[in-house]
Design a protein that fits this description.
The structure holds two protein chains of two kinds. By secondary structure, chain A is mostly beta strands. Chain A is built from no helices and ten strands. In chain A, the strands form three sheets. In chain A, strands 3-4-5-9 form a four-stranded antiparallel β-sheet, with no helix packed on it. Chain A is globular and about 45 Å long. The relative contact order of chain A is 0.21. Chain B contains 29 helices and 39 strands. In chain B, 31% of the residues lie in helices and 20% in strands. A five-stranded parallel β-sheet of chain B has the order 4-3-2-8-20. In chain B, strands 10-17-11-12-13 form a five-stranded parallel β-sheet, covered by helices on one side. In chain B, a hairpin with a 4-residue loop joins strand 6 and strand 7. Chain B starts with a strand and ends in a 15-residue tail after the last helix. The chains are: A mainly beta, B alpha/beta. At the A-B interface, strand 2, strand 3 and strand 6 of A face helix 18, helix 19 and helix 29 of B. The complex binds siroheme, flavin-adenine dinucleotide, iron/sulfur cluster and FE2/S2 (inorganic) cluster (FES). Siroheme binds next to strand 33 of chain B.
Chain lengths: 122, 870
């Protein structure tokens, strides 16, 4: 069998302090729905794809309740910017900056996130 | 003890009833509480409350809800209120009042607002145990206690307004109510013979037994001295466990008589047009205890309020205000029947003519009294008093359309729907607070009010008996529209359509994708975007309700639909505060075999779940991690269960009582019917959750009338009630149809639910929907019973499609690897549980470890530490 040359797999990675960290296959992301990823230091990230294929990642913890659930919220567009609404008490968070849209004083970490082509391992 | 009036003059108010409270507010508004010492002697153990709405206590309003004042109001205005301390003696020469406690207060102005007491005819044993009157909260609590202690039949003496209310209260306490009325018809003061006849048929249809044209001769008592029955004037005997006298009221004028004030021949403290007693300029009388300058004693709250204002104005001497008489208009909902009378209802004006519409089958009777020149003089409405607000305001003028068109029901000869826009500016829209249409328009145009609550606050309109609120709403909308304010009824920032409009679009165009709908029909700026958390689940629900009929995937996690669901629907379980989930297995009708109980116990034990019996006759298991959900469902499926909806806008449970099979009173198999209904409608997506219950007899142990659709067995079949609600704003369901066979019942429920799903707003329970939609219950009955829109066949076929396509959505996840893959805590560590979900022991079970939630790292949010987090 001839391995198809240049076969690639799209993977999603986050930029952490120590460098890029791969979390999952791009195909695991359903547009409009998040997944949670466990980071090496024990933190959690919520990773989203929107319908245009743009990726976003913020801290998974809901700062209002402490539960790690932001990845399970509903996403949307507000004034052209992407957001997620916490599934617990419904506060909205900007997905690019992590800023809470309902409370100026609250903000969660936002991560840089990209999809990259990983060589398909035979 | 004598309190000496200080530097400021003293106003003493005797009686803190509805009118007394209104008087205090009028004093405060005029600044008199700042310049005067105000002392209130109140006989009852609690401050003023809403006597008009007393009966609503039996439909769920609490004693606190009825209160008309609060400590803050009294404190702010420095009002000294003495509860449970009635005035006993007035010394007019020394200007002093002595209360029961011995308190003596000197006054500069004395205001009597002592109200009335119920008249009890002097029949033997009228004081026996089991005899009551109906005037105060204490009366009502005593009636409730006695009824609950085992009474089955209750009789009300008096078939007037209050008597029928009392009978309604007895009925809601589960008693079989009788009404004995001496006059030949019900509500002899308010309605005429025709209206009385329409009312009679309707209230009899509701289970009241009415005896007119007979008086009460004697209360019969047993050996223990408690009531056992009544002997009537025609010689017959009526067995009854309790008697409520409601045979009219008499002004409480004893205090006034004792100190030599003038009282009328038939009672009432005589006052002039300023509400000052004719005998003493230092003393005023207002409310039901007063005999007004027009020679009448008013038994309604609106004239009392006007008197309170008048007296306050006279004391302040800042305004020429007189009380020369009032319009005795009333509108009430008696046992769910609308009854209203206004103006010259009995046609006493010389030369006047009647316009009458009567439909005894539908229980409708409407009469207008019109002068020779076409002036509307008054009228009576029974069964449908929708037009009351408009008609009352038009009284005294010539209506812009022929009067007969005003009484014809919708559908009969295309009547003119005369909106409030037809009213002249000086028409009084709210008669409780004497607010004109002009004032309401001004609130919108000048004071920039944009909602009914704002207008209520600004003008006071609608804050009395509430009967004008509908007209108010229409006026506000019309005024906003006229002043060019766009009233945005859109679902959210993404759609300018209402939910109902979106439903029609999805159904008519067979739109199966949210994105498609957004890109074609969304607001300009929202097209091509990701929508929002409001419209996504709403549209997801519409698509799910119609899925089989429009060709969409029938699983909530199919394709794009998965992205639309709220988190609970997405994970098919209820999210808890620490990120864990609860699972509530479906227990149709609440019936469960011992083997299944054991299975639930075993599952909960094996997964370490907290268990609790819910209010919906099921067992809830809490504390499951995402990755445990499919494992739990698999165990349930193996044991013949399915998980159930405690989440989602869908059918919750159909509760049942044990019914005919076991219960000595049951007349039908309520358990079987509840199971049938639950299995038929399970999984149905709707604008809000749907709850149901089936009771085996009128005792109503399943609380069916607090449900969206409730069923009660009768000797002749099933009665179907709709629009009930528990929760924060309880509402008793209304009777939609009676004595239905099994098949008729199911067909009607099919139609009702589909019509609701089609026309309700997002998150609108059937109760609010029923109150909002034009025409209310009558309209719904026309549509689903009489098929007035010709859509019943379609409604039935939509439901048939739902029923035949129903699948166990939890079992499908267990059997579908792709869906199953989503049930992990971490996409990159599928085997690792979420470390934030932890538990600690409590009362032999577990509870969330809440401190654990606050330990995790949380950059940027130090400010929240210790505040929101417990
Ligand atoms: C579990 C249960 C309490 C219990 O321990 O008994 C419960 C728990 C919840 N109720 Fe309830 N309600 C429960 C019976 C009731 C009842 C009683 C009944 O159904 O007989 C009522 C009043 C009846 C009614 O709904 O008219 C009730 C009125 C509400 C309301 C107010 C609804 C309203 O129209 O005012 C809400 C809030 C809402 O839906 O917006 C609510 C919302 C909730 C939610 C869904 C709140 C939430 O979003 O987390 C709770 C989630 C349960 C869970 O996580 O499993 N729950 N809730 C009961 C589940 C019954 C079942 O087996 O399905
Ligand atoms: C069940 C029911 C339904 C009604 N429905 C309607 C309706 O739909 N529409 C309508 O317009 N009206 C209705 N009414 C009538 C309405 O409640 C009265 O018109 C209104 O309460 C009169 O107010 P008031 O302050 O004059 O008397 P009340 O509200 O009776 O207040 C008088 C107060 O004075 C107290 N008092 C008496 N003597 C003394 C004393 N010596 N010292 C101290 N305190 C004393 C009494 O205890 C009482 O608290 C209804 C009444 C009832 C009972
Ligand atoms: S409602 Fe049901 S349980 Fe209650 S008395 Fe009637 S049949 Fe018996
Ligand atoms: S008419 Fe009673 S509140 Fe307006």
């Amino acid at each position: 069998m001839t391995p198809a040359l240049g076969t690639t797999d799209l993977k999603v990675r986050l930029r952490l302090e120590g460098g890029w960290f791969t979390v999952c296959d791009l195909s695991a992301l359903l547009p409009g729905r998040g997944v949670a990823a466990l980071l090496p230091d024990g933190r959690q990230a919520a990773v989203f794809a929107d319908r245009a294929g743009r990726l976003h990642a913020i801290d998974n913890r809901d700062p209002f309740t402490g539960a790690a659930v932001l990845s399970r919220g509903l996403t949307g567009t507000h004034r052209g910017r992407p957001f997620v609404a916490s599934p617990l008490l419904k506060q909205r968070f900007d997905l690019e900056s992590g800023q809470c849209l309902d409370d100026e004083a609250v903000r969660v970490t936002a991560y840089e996130v990209t999809a990259y082509e990983a060589e398909a391992v035979e | 003890m004598t309190t000496t009036p200080g530097a400021s003059p003293t106003i003493v108010l005797v009686g803190h009833g509805m009118v007394g409270q209104r008087f205090l507010e009028a004093l405060a508004e005029r600044g008199l509480t700042a310049t005067h010492r105000v002392v209130v002697l109140c006989e009852e153990p609690r401050p003023a409350y809403d006597r008009v709405r007393l009966t609503s206590y039996f439909s769920g309003r609490t004693v606190e809800d009825l209160s008309l004042t609060d400590a803050a109001f009294l404190a702010e205005h420095g009002i000294e209120l003495h509860l449970g301390d009635p005035a006993e003696h007035v010394d007019r020469a020394a200007r002093k009042v002595t209360a029961r406690s011995g308190l003596v207060v000197g006054y500069d102005v004395l205001v009597l607002a002592t109200g009335s007491h119920p008249f009890v005819p002097p029949v033997p044993h009228r004081d026996a145990e089991g005899c009551f009157v109906y005037r105060t909260i204490e009366d009502l609590l005593a009636i409730e206690e006695y009824a609950r202690a085992g009474a089955a039949v209750g009789t009300v003496v008096g078939g007037g307004l209050l008597g029928l209310e009392a009978a309604g209260a007895l009925k809601s306490l589960g008693l079989a109510p009788h009404v004995v009325e001496f006059a030949p018809r019900l509500m002899p003061l308010q309605v005429d013979e025709g209206g009385g006849a329409a009312l009679l048929r309707t209230v009899e249809g509701m289970g009241l037994t009415v005896h007119t044209g007979v008086g009460t001769q004697e209360v019969l008592v047993g050996d223990d001295g408690a009531v056992t029955g009544m002997r009537l004037s025609d010689g017959s005997e009526l067995a009854t466990d309790m008697v409520v006298f409601s045979a009219g009221v008499r002004p409480r004028d004893q205090l006034a008589r004792d100190c030599g004030l003038t009282v009328g021949e038939r009672g009432g403290i005589a006052v002039d047009e300023r509400c000052r007693t004719v005998a003493d300029p230092h003393v005023f009388a207002i409310g039901e205890c007063a005999l007004a300058a027009d020679g009448r004693v008013y038994g309604l709250v609106a004239p009392g309020y006007a008197q309170a204002e008048t007296a306050a104005a006279a004391i302040a001497a800042d305004e020429e205000r007189a009380f020369t008489g009032a319009d005795p208009s009333t509108r009430l909902k008696l046992l769910g029947v609308d009854v209203a009378s206004f103006g010259d209802a009995h046609g006493a004006t010389a030369g006047c003519l009647d316009v009458v519409y009567s439909d005894s089958r539908a229980g409708l009777y409407k009469k207008l009294v019109v002068g020779r020149d076409g002036t509307l003089l008054g009228g009576i409405l029974v069964g449908d008093a929708e037009a009351y607000g408009t008609l009352r305001a038009l009284t005294g003028s010539v209506p812009p359309v022929p009067p007969e068109t005003l009484v014809l029901p919708a559908g009969a000869g295309a009547p003119a729907r005369l909106g409030p826009s037809a009213l002249p500016d000086d028409a009084v829209v709210c008669s409780c607070h004497n607010v004109t249409k002009g004032t309401i328009r001004g609130a919108v145009t000048e004071h920039r009010c944009t909602t009914v609550p704002e207008v209520k606050k600004c003008t006071g309109a609608g804050t009395g008996c509430g009967s004008c609120v509908k007209v108010l709403g229409r006026l506000v909308d019309a005024e906003l529209a006229a002043s060019g304010v766009e009233v945005d009824k859109g679902l959210c920032g993404c759609f300018s359509q209402t939910r109902e409009e979106l439903y029609e679009l999805v159904l008519a165009l067979r739109i199966t994708s949210y994105r498609d709908l957004l890109d074609r029909y969304g607001r300009e700026g929202a097209r091509g975007g990701d929508g929002c958390e409001v419209c996504k689940p709403a549209v997801g629900s519409i698509i799910a309700s119609l899925a089989p009929s429009i060709g969409a995937g029938t699983h909530v996690l199919d394709g794009e639909q998965a992205a639309l669901q709220d988190t609970n629907d997405h994970f098919l379980a209820n999210l808890q505060r620490n990120g864990s989930y609860s699972v509530v297995p479906r227990v149709p009708g609440g019936e469960i075999a011992p083997e299944k109980l054991i299975v639930i116990g075993e599952i909960a034990r094996d997964f370490g779940l907290y268990t609790k019996i819910t209010g919906g006759q099921r067992i809830d298991m809490f504390g499951a991690r995402v990755e445990q959900l499919p494992l739990i469902w698999a165990r349930l499926v193996d044991a013949g269960f399915e998980s159930g909806h405690a989440y989602g806008k869908s059918l919750r449970t159909v509760k049942s009582c044990v019914g005919q099979t076991w219960c000595r009173y049951g007349v039908r198999d309520s358990v079987r019917m509840a199971i049938d209904l639950e299995l038929r409608y399970r999984g149905l997506r709707s604008p809000h959750k749907l709850k149901s219950a089936v009771s085996g007899c009128q005792r109503e142990c399943a609380e069916a009338r607090s449900k969206d659709f409730g069923v009660i067995a009768t000797a002749g079949g099933w009665n179907l009630y709709v629009g009930g609600n528990g929760g924060a704003t309880p509402r008793h369901a209304d009777l939609l149809a009676q004595d239905l066979s099994d098949a008729e019942l199911i067909r009607l429920v099919d139609r009702f639910l589909m019509f609701y799903i089609r026309t309700a707003d997002r998150l609108e329970r059937t109760s609010t929907w029923l109150e909002r939609i034009p025409g209310g219950l009558d309209h719904v009955r026309d549509v689903v019973v009489h098929d007035s829109l010709g859509i019943c066949e379609e409604l039935e076929s939509l439901m048939a499609a739902h029923v035949s396509h129903y699948r166990d959505e939890w079992a499908e996840v267990v059997n579908d690897p792709e869906k199953l893959a989503r049930f992990v805590s971490f996409v990159n560590a599928p085997g690792t549980p979420d470390p934030v979900v932890g538990f600690v022991p409590e009362r032999d079970q577990v509870k969330p470890d809440l401190p654990l939630l606050s330990i995790g790292p949380r950059p940027f949010v130090e400010t929240l530490e210790g505040s929101t987090l417990r």
